Amino acid sequence: MIVVDSSVWIDHLRGTNTPQVEKLHELISQQPLVVGDVIMCEVLQGVPTEREARLVERALRNFDLVSMLGVEQAVRSAALYRALRGKGITIRKTIGLIIAAWCIANNAKLLHSDSDFTQIERYAGLTAV
After folding, report:
1. Which residue segment(s) compose the domain that 106 sits in?
2. Are the CB atoms for 95 and 89 separated by under 8 Å?
3. Count: domains in the chain
């Protein structure tokens, strides 16, 4: 199972050519991809018009959609934050913690281009694509 982070979707929508966007294009035809509810929220926040937002939402709904936050997941995300803080690492965005904790708990790989996730890979067992 592969989760695609908003950092990659946003680059894709902007037409920015990155290794992660190239990997996304490769994976779209090969594997089922997962879009988390919080990822959809982040992506749709950055879309400038309602018309474009509807188009992007419709496109994202073609992938497997999952809820990434509930009570247990909130507890896991906070525990991940504390564990990383104990190692001297501060993750900047709560949504990143939620995504990472969900991926770790569900043995999912993450396609991303965010340095916070690189730290979580190094110190907390997140697996990246």
Report:
1. 2-128
2. no
3. 1
Backbone phi, psi, residue 46, to 5°:
-90, 0
CATH at residue 96: 3.40.50.1010
Q: What is the pLDDT along the chain (129 residues), one digit of tens a residue?
A: 999 999 999 999 999 999 999 999 999 989 889 999 999 999 999 999 999 999 999 999 999 999 999 999 999 999 999 999 999 999 999 999 999 999 999 999 999 999 999 999 999 999 999
